[in-house]
Amino acid sequence: MGSESGGREYSLTEIFAIKFVLADILIIAALLLAGPLYAVAITALFVFTTFLIWYLTQRTGTETADTETPRETDSTAQRAETDRDPVTKLQDRYAAGELSDEEFEAKLGRLIESNERADAAGIDTAELELELERSE
């Protein structure tokens, strides 16, 4: 719940507090200017809208939590996997027993060599996908 102009985000408690302050002002003005029947009608309207806002925020809050949590978890895990550097991935595979000593040393050597060639050519390797990863 926040302002549409990109400003400050308001909590549900703050929204209800603002609503009740404005409702008090309007009810007092209705009592003074229009009479007690209008003040009672306005009070009933504010009570109804308060429960309606509470119900809608509870319903949308539950739906949002149910639908977005798995997606965020998947994207976070995927981002963590892609953020790891190739040497760490290679070390993890070696530690898991997927690579023999010779394979590990050969792949590590190719990785270092390709990184040195890229540095000599002035290419930023952080954005590149390594051929080592694709060839496996």
From TrEMBL:
Segments for region (Disordered): 61-87
Name of a matching Pfam family: SHOCT
UniProt keywords, alphabetically: Membrane, Transmembrane, Transmembrane helix
InterPro entries linked to this entry: SHOCT
Segments of skewed composition (Basic and acidic residues): 68-87
Residues of the SHOCT domain: 85-111
Regions that span the bilayer: 12-31, 37-56
Lineage: superkingdom: Archaea
Protein name (Swiss-Prot/TrEMBL): SHOCT domain-containing protein
Provenance organism: Natronorubrum halalkaliphilum
